[in-house]
């Protein structure tokens, strides 16, 4: 279990598109998914998708993945989150990807 910073309430739940597809291959249900910023459940009325653009592997090499990963947060949380918190969420999302 990865430790979260004290301001990040839940680990991002990650989905992805295969390269070139227009529908997600893995598309986590919105119902039951927690916003990493506040820890509350997501709703369709208050939703923002955050793309995870690049992955840095254990050797420090950054690659553009064949899969396009994303996670979801509340739109209202995204608008008020500090850059540091948003970066932390990205780092945790990438950490989850690296261990899969
Ligand atoms: Zn939230």
Present the secondary structure layout.
Blueprint lengths: L13 E5 L29 E5 L2 E2 L5 E2 L3 E7 L1 H6 L2 H17 L1
The site of zinc ion has 7 residues, from loops.
What does this structure look like?
The protein has 100 residues and is an alpha+beta fold. It contains 2 helices and 5 strands, in the order E-E-E-E-E-H-H. It has a 3-stranded antiparallel sheet. A hairpin with a 5-residue loop joins strand 3 and strand 4. The two termini are 13 Å apart. The mean pLDDT is 86. The site of zinc ion has 7 residues, from loops.
Please mark out the parts with pLDDT under 50 across 5 or more consecutive residues, or reply none: none
Give the strand tally: 5
Compounds present?
A: zinc ion
What integer value in Å does the Rg equal?
13 Å
Largest sheet, if any? Answer: 3 strands, antiparallel
Would you tell me the overall average pLDDT?
A: 86
Structural class given helices, strands, pairing?
alpha+beta
Task: List the secondary-structure elements in sequence, H or E.
Answer: EEEEEHH
Shape: globular
Question: Features of this protein?
Answer:
100 residues; alpha+beta; three-stranded antiparallel sheet; two-stranded antiparallel sheet; 2 helices
Short recap of the structure:
By secondary structure, the protein is an alpha+beta fold.
């Amino acid at each position: 279990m990865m430790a979260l910073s004290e301001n990040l309430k839940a680990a991002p739940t990650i989905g992805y598109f295969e390269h070139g597809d227009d529908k997600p291959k893995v598309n986590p249900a919105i119902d039951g998914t927690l916003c990493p910023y506040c820890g509350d459940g997501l709703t369709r009325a208050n939703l923002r998708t955050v793309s995870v653009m690049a992955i840095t592997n254990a050797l420090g090499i950054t690659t553009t993945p064949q899969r396009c990963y994303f996670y979801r947060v509340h739109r209202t949380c995204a608008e008020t989150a500090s850059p540091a918190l948003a970066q932390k969420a990205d780092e945790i999302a990438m950490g989850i990807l690296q261990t899969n």
